[in-house]
Amino acid sequence: MNERKSRFTSLSGLDIESCYGPDHLKGWNAEQDLGQPGTFPYTRGCYPGMYRSRLWTMRQFAGFGSADDTNRRFKYLLDHGQTGLSVAFDLPTLMGLDSDDPMARGEVGYCGVAISSLTDMERLFDGIPLDHVTTSMTINGPAAVLFAMYLAVAEKRGIPFDRLGGTIQNDILKEYIAQKEWLFPPEPHLALIVDTIAYCAAHVPKWHPISISGYHIREAGSTAIQELAFTLYDGLTYVEAAVKSGLDVDTFAPQLSFFFNVHNDFFEEIAKFRAARRLWAREMERRYHPKNPRSLQLRCHAQTAGCSLTAQQPLNNVVRTTLQALAAVLGGTQSLHTNSMDETLALPTEEAVKLALRTQQIIAGESETINSVDPLGGSYFVESLTNRLEEGALELFRKLDGFGGMVRAIEHGFPQREILDASQRYQREIERQERSIVGVTEHREEEHRSIPILKIGPEVEQEQVARLSDLRKSRDPFKMAGSLEELQEMASCHQNLMPSLIEAVKAKATLGEICAALKEVYGTYREPVVL
Amino acid sequence: MTVAATPLRILIGKVGLDGHDRGVKLVARALRDAGVEIIYTGLHQSPEQIVTTAIQEDVQAIGLSIHSGAHNSLFPRVLGLLREQGAGDIVLFGGGIIPDEDVPRLKAAGVQMLFRPATPMHDIVEFVNGLRTER
After folding, report:
1. Domains of chain B (ranges plus CATH)?
2. Residues of A in contact with B70 (CB under 8 A)
3. Cα dist from A85 to A133, A255, A331, A433, whole Å
4. pLDDT over threshold 90, residue A77
5. What would the CATH number be for the domain defined by A1-23+181-435?
6. pLDDT tens digits, residue range B27-40?
7. Contact B17 A531 (CB under 8 A)
């Protein structure tokens, strides 16, 4: 046969043959490996009817400038048919620093919204009914503090905690692995995460206390198999920590959620979602024998791959995003963020965000791809890929076991090095033109056209700094200091910190002050340098 | 193969709070493979820390990666500190998510070169090798 290339590979480097048939599925058993939608091992989806019963939640990640700027963007998105909110915080907030911290200079409001105090959080959700929308917050190191602020806003408005729905990302392991925004060493961070899990199980039952994330691992350059393996292994690490703390697995496992990337390789990505559900169900069953089937189900959010977008010919990004979004839908995601075409340049403009949301609405409303559950189930190729991804992930599980678990593996730099090596392999493939990027490696154009981009002015930082100064003058300093002492006391004797955190934010202690108080107890973290 | 006569020491680092280190590590690896001595600072460095390390390590150039949008604040602060501390001869270059319209201003301020997304690695290596002859 005359072929264009000597070797065809998936984006993750798996060899792909010319055609798939029954020989590729030897040992595969439709009953055990596929099952029905909504039944073990959930390969075909968590729910029997999937999108016939309920569409995925269209959830565009948004946040920039001040709380008021972002509040306006939230209302714009809700007005255009978005069904859930998703907050992007700026880097100082993600690092647990106030907007007036010296390290925050020049960064306030840039990559997301600046939130330093309960007052900021109140302005962020002004006029938004917290008992009717669900809110996802991408926050990790200081997740418990921002969650305490959200709860305090609800309390002030008289909304009972059991009517609040949403998610905090709260996944610190992938911060050490890929995203690199941490506050404390791994052990106290894990304990704080278990606190939020336990608190939600008892008081905020509809909340997802953690979103175990592969997104950032993939953006850092991993393969699909590494994304799958490291994310699920992180998930099992959290479950183990929570069970060890004395929680019954069925009190919290149904509220765990996951977050995956959707990259360019259409079928590999679909297979990744299917393999993730099956692998999670099997591992949870094998390790913990939960009684509630919901404890076995991997529910997830997906976001199209930011790292696949190009600054060249930015309109092409709309097409990339459409294909990725379709893969997430065919993979059976529960919610989805579609990137905007201008996101390699800056935060997205309103027009670009609307087009990204419309992309999802067109898939849902016009493509008729959602009428049958898991439409690719039984495809020789997709089932074979699903098997290979699951096997590849299990192989990495064994290596991680060999280190004595994820925390030790991170300290040895193992996942970091695996990802960096994969990222370098991909970079070389691009440079050798073994992979195409339209507009970059081929079909290049001389471009002088630029698209409008969103600008954040220096006034955002100046106003934030002024607001913080007012807050510090107007609060009761004794009550504030007392709340921080109480918090440190609780942290020292390993009590659940959520109640003291809620008291501290209500006493107008700022994010930076709370995190600094906790660092005094817990210490800080220096990463092993992997190069 | 021609071996460059002057050894070259370069500080490669992340300044500010952003943790996107995929690109900077690939650049560091490529330069190392090209025979450049690399001092890698790791993440979350303040402009003060960058400049102190650069002077202590006696580097010829500093390459900084910024993906957070804070380039208009961070690059000028590094340049200012270098001049203040009598190290204005250290070349500053950088890369990351930097919109077109910000480039002329940063270059005018003294950033020698800015590498934008999808720059071939070869271009960066060539630029850094060019610094050997400039000295």
Report:
1. 9-134 (3.40.50.280)
2. 91, 106-107, 110
3. 7, 18, 22, 40
4. no
5. 3.20.20.240
6. 999 999 999 999 99
7. no
